[in-house]
Design a protein that fits this description.
The protein is of the alpha/beta class. Helix content is 40%, strand content 13%. The chain contains ten helices and eight strands. Helix 7 packs across helix 10. The protein starts with 11 loop residues before the first helix and ends in a 13-residue tail after the last helix.
């Protein structure tokens, strides 16, 4: 059955508003943590991040690393280190073992600005950071991870609105607790689909069926085999929604494959890491 390709879009007005808010907040921090999704480590980055941050020091956290093959991820980490000339740290919200590494890097990047402030005769203050990233890459989980033992919020500071609060991570580091959400205008539909695969796009921007079809079509041969095994498909059977529905007995009246239901299950199973550990980007 031939189906129309999906078209994913959201509105530029939302982008302009988010970018304006981010730029306003940037003046309040010394350094930025950019969070990306390990399953799409290239597609989940914001294109104009360097210009948007206006030279503000940053490092990358590759979140959800527990959902991918770590040996494959290492190739992307090395690539991103060379491309961005910044530290790139794999992480997951399920573990706090790397918490000290993240905190130390944030403090290190903040030190030049703190030294400049002290050179003007002001007292040393804690480093201040902000977490940014595409929707659903795990900004909130990173913030929760950083603040897990924090019990104290400092009061309002000069130039900060009442909605913006500083959270004390430790005596050396503070976090602006309103994260900068940076969505992106999607002219590259393959990239938009990848963002939909990992749930970084609001579900009102697409339908499950065409996105699930794109996911199955994008898989590498080895990944297709893993999908077939998970859904109990014979090796010679084509990997598509109809065959998955039949194999799992997700049927409608008349034994017709329940396409929409199956598409939803495929996306859910992928997002939850039930099928396997996949990276969907390629280093060219």
């Amino acid at each position: 059955m031939k189906r129309n390709k999906t078209h994913i879009h959201w509105y530029p007005g939302h982008i302009a508003k988010a970018e304006k808010k981010l730029k306003e907040q940037l003046s309040l921090v010394d350094a930025v943590i950019e969070v990306i999704d390990a399953r799409i480590p290239l597609s989940s980055r914001y294109d104009n991040i360097t210009g948007l941050l206006n030279g503000k020091p940053r490092f990358l956290l590759v979140n959800k690393s527990d959902l991918v093959d770590l040996k494959e991820l290492e190739k992307f980490i090395n690539y991103l280190k060379q491309e961005t000339q910044t530290s790139v740290i794999p992480t997951t919200s399920k573990s706090s073992k790397d918490l000290n590494i993240i905190v130390k890097e944030a403090i290190r990047l903040s030190e030049p600005r703190i030294q400049a402030i002290m050179a003007k005769g002001l007292l040393r203050r804690p480093a201040r950071i902000m977490v940014v990233g595409m929707p659903n890459v795990g900004k909130s989980s990173i913030i929760n991870k950083l603040t897990r033992s924090s019990k104290t919020k400092t009061g309002a500071k000069a130039g900060i609105t009442r909605q913006q609060q500083w959270v004390r991570i430790n005596p050396q580091l503070e976090l602006l607790d309103t994260p900068g959400i940076i969505p992106m205008k999607q002219e590259d539909q393959q990239r938009a689909n990848k963002l939909a695969f990992v749930n970084s796009v609001g579900d009102n921007a697409y339908s499950n069926e065409p996105v699930a079809i794109e996911l199955l079509n994008l898989l590498k041969p080895s990944q297709k085999e893993i999908f077939k095994q998970f859904y109990n498909l014979e090796q010679e059977t084509e990997l598509n929604i109809e065959n998955i529905a039949i194999a799992r007995k997700w049927l409608r009246l008349g034994d017709e494959p329940d396409i929409e239901r199956t598409a939803g299950y495929i996306l859910r199973d992928f997002r939850e890491g039930k099928i396997g550990k996949f990276i969907l980007d390629n280093i060219e």
